[in-house]
């Protein structure tokens, strides 16, 4: 349930200092334990060349990932998307423990931020951009199905939704696998795995579903994002 174009709504004005400034601030922040060279390798790093832009790029990914919270999301992501994240958190919390719900939403935020940074820094090649477009179209059709399942009585189709979410997850992994660590790819698995739980789907979409009021709020957020062209 994460819009592909979320990362197009990320504002980086709050961290628009120069790449060298970012690198210096990151290097002095010992508690973050930022290890650029071993975590995010670039061709220039492999060749031993220093480029402040590359260091700043890696610093952005690391720092913003470490700061991933719903509060940070509201700084870097627009209001409609932040509202969707809040309501997804309420849905997750209704189905799971607070710890697990927090983890799922933080993983969404980390994924969105990292993809936004990759996109903003032109890191995707032509094939990956085609994959991104495929993901966008598939996610849009899945979102439309979610809206329909809520608004049209007795239309809920669990096998269809499970298949659609699985395809969205596979496309997203294909998009980022060249750029992100196994740990980050695991976050993609975590998010789509959580929202693909049959018990959660049935409690959200089924007849007399206990989570129906939360779904109504999520669908309203989706309508807002669709009107803005972001979903």
Automatic annotation (TrEMBL):
One of the GO BP terms on file: regulation of apoptotic process
Pfam family, one: TNFAIP8
Any one cellular-component term (Gene Ontology): cytoplasm
Identification of the protein by name: Tumor necrosis factor alpha-induced protein 8-like protein
Phylogenetic placement of the source organism: Eukaryota, Metazoa, Ecdysozoa, Arthropoda, Chelicerata
């Amino acid at each position: 349930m994460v819009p592909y174009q979320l990362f197009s709504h990320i504002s980086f004005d709050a961290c628009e200092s120069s790449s060298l400034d970012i690198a210096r601030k990151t290097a002095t922040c010992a508690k973050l334990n930022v290890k650029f060279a071993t975590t995010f390798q670039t061709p220039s790093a492999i060749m031993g060349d220093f480029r402040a832009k590359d260091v700043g790029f890696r610093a952005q990914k690391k720092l913003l990932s470490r700061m991933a919270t719903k509060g940070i999301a509201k700084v870097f992501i627009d209001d409609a998307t932040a509202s969707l994240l809040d309501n997804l958190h309420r849905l997750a919390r209704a189905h799971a423990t607070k710890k697990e719900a927090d983890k799922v939403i933080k993983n969404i935020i980390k994924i969105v931020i990292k993809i936004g940074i990759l996109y903003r820094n032109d890191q995707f090649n032509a094939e990956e951009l085609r994959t991104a477009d495929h993901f966008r179209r598939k996610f849009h059709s899945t979102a439309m199905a979610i809206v329909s399942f809520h608004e049209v009585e007795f239309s809920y189709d669990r096998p269809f939704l499970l298949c659609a979410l699985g395809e969205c997850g596979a496309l997203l992994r294909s998009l980022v696998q060249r750029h992100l660590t196994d740990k980050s790819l695991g976050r993609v698995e975590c998010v789509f795995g959580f929202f693909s739980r049959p018990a959660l789907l049935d409690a959200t979409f089924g007849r007399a579903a206990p989570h129906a009021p939360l779904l109504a709020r999520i669908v309203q957020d989706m309508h807002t994002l669709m009107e803005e062209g972001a979903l």
